[in-house]
């Protein structure tokens, strides 16, 4: 097993930089998620690690081995990197049985027949494919095909797994099941895994750490808790979380209040101190708060009228069963709240809403970086 390290990696296609100065260290045995919107550079990063793309600049290590360094003239081809890839398309050979699909990479390496037999049976048992070994891919469901593709990667016992949106072709229910199976499998094998997705739920539920990328630049690396609770900037705050974080233009006052014009809220004392130190008092900033930190006052544990409450008009109620996503308006300001499932709010009525100020965020409008 081995970790992976990218040092100052760039990838340019003509005048377009798809990946910009990527510095990322993935620990041995870690499940690392590369997350970002379509076209952000995450798949290009994965392809450079695999050797399917050569970096324009920078160095890539797998374990202690330098596998790419254009300046030093180093480029190790994919077949010699001891990695295995699983793609969005299962890429199975339609004329081969499940057994032969899994065995194929071992036969290519001229592994003795007896060892091939043992390793294929071992992997098939691990993935619940033992009863399907004689079937052809066309006789399998989507989930079974995906497991065969995983089996073909696992059977080689590589140092690193690279996975490019492997679950995106599955239906929602199967995707949830396969997420859990993949995570359990990775724990059992202990192999360093780099997993590309644009689905933040997938990222948050599967990864040990998440690397968030936008326009080819690394925005933040951290555990799911860290990127959710302490986003580094506006992009991360808005990208992580569903429904997304509310952002409201605000003025910060000397006495620790945030003034939206239509209403005001009071910061905690330690938050106000941070704002003073950041020299943001009296300036415009962006106030951020997640919908789940805005409550129907009937269900809020801490209500301080005038300090963490506002009266809002209910515009739309989305009843999800376990919660209600409520679209709220105060004057020209609109935001979302995630209310208790037993909340009785109805469209068109006025409701007292409570903001959990301990969970509030402030972003500098110029730099877009988080103050807290």
Describe the structure.
Strand 5 and strand 6 form a beta hairpin. This protein is 25% helix and 33% strand. The protein is globular. With 372 residues, it is an alpha+beta fold. The strands form four sheets. A six-stranded mixed sheet has the order 7-8-9-3-10-11, with helices on both faces. It folds into two domains: 4-238, P-loop containing nucleotide triphosphate hydrolases (Rossmann fold), CATH 3.40.50.300; 243-363, OB fold (Dihydrolipoamide Acetyltransferase, E2P), CATH 2.40.50.140. It contains nine helices and 21 strands. The longest helix has 18 residues, at 172-189.
Task: Note the topology.
Elements: E1 4-13, E2 16-26, E3 31-35, H1 42-50, E4 57-62, E5 65-69, E6 74-75, E7 83-86, H2 98-108, H3 113-127, H4 142-154, E8 160-164, H5 172-189, E9 192-197, H6 200-206, E10 209-214, E11 217-222, H7 224-229, H8 234-239, E12 246-252, E13 257-259, E14 264-266, H9 269-277, E15 284-289, E16 294-296, E17 309-319, E18 323-330, E19 333-340, E20 350-355, E21 361-363
Parallel strand pairs: 3-9, 3-10, 7-8, 8-9
Antiparallel strand pairs: 1-2, 1-4, 4-5, 5-6, 10-11, 12-13, 12-15, 13-14, 15-21, 16-20, 17-18, 17-20, 18-19
